Automatic annotation (TrEMBL), chain A:
GO-annotated molecular function: ATP binding
A Pfam family annotated for this UniProt entry: ABC_tran
UniProt protein name: D-xylose transport ATP-binding protein xylG
UniProt cross-references to SUPFAM superfamilies, sorted A to Z: P-loop containing nucleoside triphosphate hydrolases
Keyword list, A-Z: ATP-binding, Nucleotide-binding, Repeat, Sugar transport, Transport
Residues in ABC transporter domain copies: 11-248
Keyword Nucleotide-binding annotated: yes
SMART domains: AAA
CDD domains linked: ABC_Carb_Monos_I
InterPro entries linked to this entry: AAA+_ATPase, ABC_carbohydrate_import_ATPase, ABC_transporter-like_ATP-bd, P-loop_NTPase
TrEMBL record, chain B:
Entries under Pfam families matching the protein: BPD_transp_2
Membrane topology, from the record: Multi-pass membrane protein
Keywords associated with the record: Cell inner membrane, Cell membrane, Membrane, Sugar transport, Transmembrane, Transmembrane helix, Transport
Compartments where found: Cell membrane
Function per UniProt: Part of the binding-protein-dependent transport system for D-xylose. Probably responsible for the translocation of the substrate across the membrane.
Source organism, top-level taxon: Bacteria
Transmembrane annotation, as ranges: 35-58, 64-86, 98-118, 124-143, 155-174, 194-218, 239-260, 280-304, 338-359, 371-400, 407-431
Membrane in keyword set: yes
Protein's UniProt name: Xylose transport system permease protein XylH
Statement: the UniProt record of this protein carries the keyword Protein biosynthesis: no
Length: 264, 439
């Protein structure tokens, strides 16, 4: 982390903790992200990665810890706050309102209005056609509720919503879980394209093979704690697997509070 | 983007050639099959009852009465659509209607006259009584909505409690005594010969409505042109306009074909010094005021659901509450507002229903909650949330009322009427389920 070129990280989450009932879902976790960087957040189901990221996107409120955006402390209490900081999230469930059309979903919570204070559906559909044309040029089903779309089309609606508002930080929670090989490759291309635009991306996955190629760094979590962080060039996939399964931090990685040797 | 839009017509034409003539027609006009089905069912019921009753049903008099009887339930059904779309239910509307009717009755017939000392017939009486009723509806709705949205008690329970509480309150206000008569101006909201606007005004309203339909079609077309979206064919636009205007003017014509009863004409003639000619004097009712109110409510509610941010949020929350929350929508406040609207609509219905009776009784609105829910559901509102239309619910109310008053005309006993209405509700929802699975 120290040898990075950019001086201030886009996102810096410090010592974040949250508990549900008696369970510490995230325990003293720290993670950072630089512009144009892809950081993969890995771990088993229940390792706390989705929870950590939902704190960043405003879906959960942290018990302790600080979040810095561009070096300045940010107060994120709800999804609206996060969006103000340019943090956009593509949730694992996609979080689409199934009964309304693509344009309504893209602008949900941020509708374009006419001078009369009414919804400007025409303008929203036109914008939707533009952004969807970039992501999925064959997509034409703008009048149908998204429940009728295929998995890949729904995914592109969710992605389009995230990039429509000039996101600076993009969180993708298991972005390819519901996709076939071809669509997965498409998402990969998109990630590289956004990265080239200088957007910082968190990729969350429980499957290392999905993300190792795309990521600049990996951060592994286990039982709510960070095992370690490493540049993908400094570690092998097997070593990362060891971090995920055993919590063992290899020499190429910077150990976190959850690493086995510290815990032991 | 230019690519995408220039491709569209080609794709549409290719698909269109695969469709049957009916499919092409539906695609060109963009009409909803479900809505057409409902209109069809309504016409079948009307013609069926007309034949069975030996020509009693499709008369200006019966249709005019039908329109007045439908108003009160139709108004509440428009609000129930929003409630059900958000995956909630409101079982209390009938009781809320009852307690508000009672408060408005007591206000105008007793409180304002005896306690405040207003003269009988003071124009402020009906204004204050109506305003008090609407305010009470808003407060009751806000209270129930607050408990549902912020205290997280299920709507079913809160409004089931409300069903008992507000009915009990209505009784407590006068210990069960009926309050009558009501203010003369207030009574106009209930319809009747005086509560109708007459032939000339009805034609004016009808023509204005036709102009509005034409303007809306033109505006929709120019909006689509502005963004280069596919346009409906000109013949389809014209057909929609002509059919809508024919329906409006036809309804006005029917309302204008129903004359005042002879007794009232005679009184009117005496008072105005007119001599009644040999064949009697034909004075048309025209559109009834409660029907005008219901139509206005329908238009406002349609506008709210289709064109405002609030309406969009109601549907999005109904489709996926979690997604709406993650999109930054304040779902609790939206929920509370929906119940506030429901309360206000119950107040308007209470005004119409009590004005029609010319009395406030503590039984006013009993079982209306079930009619209102049935109207919304028959009108295509899904209990699973996320879908429903205001127009559908109003047609649903008309359908229910047609069945009921039709059965009265046929001389069917009231227990059997209940059996039929219940069966129709179940069958309608079953048909809707089948339809949803296939589409």
């Amino acid at each position: 982390m120290a040898d990075t070129t950019a001086p201030t990280p886009l996102i810096d989450m410090h010592n974040i903790s949250i508990a549900f009932g008696g369970i510490r879902a995230v325990d003293d976790a720290s993670i950072d992200l630089f512009p144009g960087e892809v950081v993969a957040l890995l771990g088993h189901n229940g390792a706390g990665k989705s929870t950590l990221i939902k704190i960043l996107s405003g879906a959960y409120k942290r018990d302790s810890g600080q979040i810095f955006v561009n070096g300045e402390e940010a107060s994120i209490a709800n999804p609206r706050d996060a969006k103000k900081y340019g943090i956009e999230t593509i949730y694992q469930t996609l979080a689409l309102a199934d009964n309304v059309d693509a344009a309504a979903n893209l602008f949900l919570g941020r509708e374009l209005m006419t001078g009369w204070g009414t919804l400007d559906d025409g303008a929203m559909e036109a914008e939707a056609r533009k952004v969807m044309g970039r992501l999925n040029p064959r997509f034409q089903r703008f009048k149908e509720p998204v429940v009728k779309l295929s998995g890949g089309q729904r995914q592109s609606v969710a992605i389009a919503r995230a990039i429509l508002f000039n996101a600076r930080i993009l969180i993708m929670d298991e972005p390819t879980a519901a996709l076939g090989p071809q669509e997965t490759a498409q998402v990969g291309e998109l990630v590289m394209q956004l990265k080239a635009d200088g957007i910082g991306i968190f990729l969350i996955s429980h499957d290392i093979h999905d993300v190792f190629e795309l990521a600049d760094r990996v951060c592994v979590m286990k039982n709510g704690r960070v095992v370690g962080t490493a540049r993908t060039g400094d570690v092998t996939q097997d070593e990362v697997l060891g971090m995920i399964i055993l919590g063992k931090c290899p020499p190429g990685a910077i150990p976190g509070p959850g690493a086995l040797k510290i815990a032991a | 983007m230019t690519d995408a839009t220039s491709n569209t017509p080609a794709v549409d034409r290719a698909r269109e050639s695969e469709l049957s003539p009916v499919g092409r027609f539906l695609k060109a006009t963009e009409l909803d099959i479900r809505m057409l089905g409902m209109v069809g069912a309504l016409l079948v019921i009307w013609v069926g009852i007309h034949i069975l009753s030996g020509g009693l049903f499709l008369t200006p008099r019966n249709l005019w009465n039908l329109s007045v009887q439908t108003s009160s339930v139709a108004i509440m059904a428009t609000g129930m659509v929003l409630v059900i779309v958000m995956r909630n239910i409101d079982l209390s509307v009938g009781s809320v209607e009852g307690v508000i009717g009672m408060v408005m009755g007591v206000a105008q017939a007793e409180f304002l006259i005896r306690v405040i000392g207003f003269q009988l017939g003071n124009p402020w009486i009906w204004v204050i009584a109506l305003a008090a009723g609407v305010a009470l509806g808003l407060i009751i709705g806000a209270l129930q909505g607050f408990i549902i949205a912020y205290l997280e008690v299920p709507a079913f329970i809160v409004t089931l409690g409300g069903l008992l509480i507000w009915r009990g309150m209505a009784w407590l206000i006068t210990s069960g005594r009926t309050v009558a008569p009501l203010d003369a101006t207030f009574q106009l909201m209930g319809g009747g010969p005086r509560g109708s606007i007459g032939a000339t005004a009805s034609w004016i309203v009808g023509i204005l409505a036709c102009v509005a339909v034409a303007l809306m079609l033109l505006n929709g077309r120019s909006q689509r042109k502005r963004f280069k979206f596919p346009l409906r064919p000109v013949w389809a636009e014209s057909l929609l306009g002509v059919v809508a205007c024919a329906a409006i003017l036809g309804a006005v014509w029917i309302a204008n074909s129903y004359p005042w009863p002879i007794g009232i004409v005679r009184q009117y003639a005496q008072r105005n010094g007119i001599t009644v000619p040999e064949g009697g004097l034909f004075i048309a009712h025209g559109i009834a005021i409660p029907v005008l109110i219901a139509v206005a409510v329908g238009i406002v509610m349609t506008f709210i659901t289709r064109r405002t941010r609030f309406g969009r949020y109601v549907f999005a929350i109904g489709g996926n509450p979690e997604a709406a929350e993650l999109a930054g929508i304040n779902t609790r406040w939206v929920t509370m507002k929906v119940f506030m609207i429901m309360g206000v609509l119950a107040a308007i219905s209470a005004a119409i229903a009590s004005a029609r009776l010319n009395a406030s009784t503590n039984a006013l609105g009993t079982l209306d909650e079930l009619l209102v829910i049935a109207a919304a559901v028959i009108g295509g509102t899904s209990l699973a949330g996320g879908s429903g239309t205001v127009l559908g619910a109003m047609l649903g109310a008309l359908l229910m009322q047609s069945l009921q008053s039709g059965m009265v005309l046929l001389g069917i006993d009231s227990p059997l009427q209940s059996v039929v209405v219940g069966a129709v509700l179940v069958v309608a929802v079953w048909l809707d389920t089948v339809y949803r699975k296939r589409v």
